[in-house]
Amino acid sequence: MARTAEEWRKRPELDSNLIVDPRIYTDPEIFREEQECIFDKSWLVACHESEMPEPYDFRTYQHPGGHNIILVRDENNNINAMLNICPHRGNLLIYEPSGSIKGASPSGGPKRITCLFHAWAFDATGECVDIPRCAEGYQDRVKKEDYGLRGVKVEVGYGGFVWVNMDENAPTLKEWLGGSLDAIDDTLTEPLEVFHYHRAVIDGNFKMWHDTNSEFYHDYMHYHNRITGMMHPGYWDREYRTFEGGHAQVTDMQLKYESFKGHEKRELGWPGLAPGRWALVDLFPGITFNIRAPSMRLDTAIPLGHNKVLVEFRGLGLKSDTPEERAIRIRDHNSIWGPFGRNLPEDLLGTYGQGRALSDPTDAPYVLHARLEGNKIHDEVGMRHFLERWQELVGRDPSDPYHNQPRAAE
Amino acid sequence: MKVTYEVEKAAREMISASCDTMDQEDFGAYLALCAPEFQYAIRVYSPEIRRDMTWLEKDYEHMKTLLDLLPKQNRDRNPIKRHISVREVTSTNGKEEVTVRSDLQVYRVLLDGGEAQVFAIGKYTDRIDMSGDEPKLLEREVRLDSRSLGAGYHIPF
Fold this sequence. Notes:
- With about 400 residues, chain A is of the alpha+beta class.
- Helix content of chain A is about 20%, strand content about 25%.
- In chain A, a hairpin with a 3-residue loop joins strand 10 (about 150-155) and strand 11 (about 160-165).
- The longest helix of chain A is centred in the C-terminal third of the chain and has 15 residues, at about 325-335.
- Chain A is globular, with a radius of gyration of 23 Å.
- Chain B is built from 3 helices and 6 strands.
- Chain B has helices at about 5-25, 25-30, 60-70, and strands at about 35-45, 50-60, 80-90, 95-110, 115-130, 135-145.
- In chain B, strands 2-1-6-5-4-3 form a 6-stranded mixed beta sheet.
- The longest helix of chain B has 19 residues, at about 5-25.
- The radius of gyration of chain B is 16 Å and the shape is globular.
- The relative contact order of chain B is 0.23.
- The mean pLDDT of chain B is about 95.
- At the A-B interface, strand 12, helix 8 and helix 9 of A face strand 2 and helix 3 of B.
């Protein structure tokens, strides 16, 4: 028999860290706090260095804090990050997602970022190099030396990913990672190259997507994962290891791809991983390193609001791949993780369903993060560990974010 | 071979039938239109990473396996409709086959309410064996312009 409204609203008799008030997924005010307290202080993957291989190549990044960022490789091969905004009148400097400033643009000369509006020009390091008719208009009140772009902290590492942080006082990337990627450092030793990129926009909160990546209980949703993983020895031995900063690793296992009809036999591995082995690390607040030898997937969650998330999916191989090896990695990646793959669309459907069901924040008073299985594969410690860090930064208890304030509908 | 009105009509009708059978999820009928050496691919260019990508690549046997396993998978149940506009039918290297280029529009019709949405746009390039009693699809490349497909889709376009 279904429960009454009173029964439905009754708080479960579970420890507070095992239940979550879904309003942390649906409240616009909490999302604004997350932008300020989390995203503007976190190291986030903006792109991979192989997406801008040549000097003067650029890539843009839509930062979850609401900032437009340009990444440009300069003539010394250093990658610089700046806000994509002209200091003159606040115009967007670069409109395209990627390209090169090596050649001249319609508004300016080569090797410059030239604002198409009034032709203010900047070099690849963000220094202002030209203000048209500067002396005539500004006399000596405005000087190009004082009008460079706003730089953003940037580091390249852990597989050649380009990380940015809006906080000029942020710890180093290594400190921020808390050793979480060191756990799979043998998989990130060789230069990588992106071969796949696509996006999905889902009506749901960014944490719903990261939750999905942070628990494996949902393998019941995937025929593919049940057949290749859950039904085989080793699956139940996988365990979560948590790291300071809200990050978590899932130890690797040997998948049985041959159990899934139609899969190619895995003969190609990955550095540090034999063919068919699977390693995974979830990074706070929304990045997942996911390697199923022979291919790698990287997820970056970019919230577009409290109830909309854009997820970027990248597929990677090794720069040293032969054409035959690369073709195998691409086929393998997309058979599971592409937009027509056997796994990824189901994960996204789950997040879509959760976003839709929780769109009315009064409908579900609590959801459970309560599986305790000694940190083994169906334990929900990954989500709980994330929310412990979330609570530290946002200052709200996920099970009681308003300190017993009544719900709007109550 | 010479592309006569009859040849073009037969090719056009075969491509239409391939769309109809997929739309109706009558996969056996779809596969019956394909030659044993059938090759299928979905490709798309990414301006973000400035690379050509292959999102799906199947031969006849692997396509059959993919379609056979669909009942076991959770998937988006909103049906899609493939609309094509044939642009060009040309002969292929003197063989008894033609190459057909078509514009493709994929619409999704929501089960709840029936709203039609443009789901994807792209092109088909089909190579069709015309030597037998019935045209047989030898190769289909779906070249997508759309790159954002929501959650994705388990059934090929």
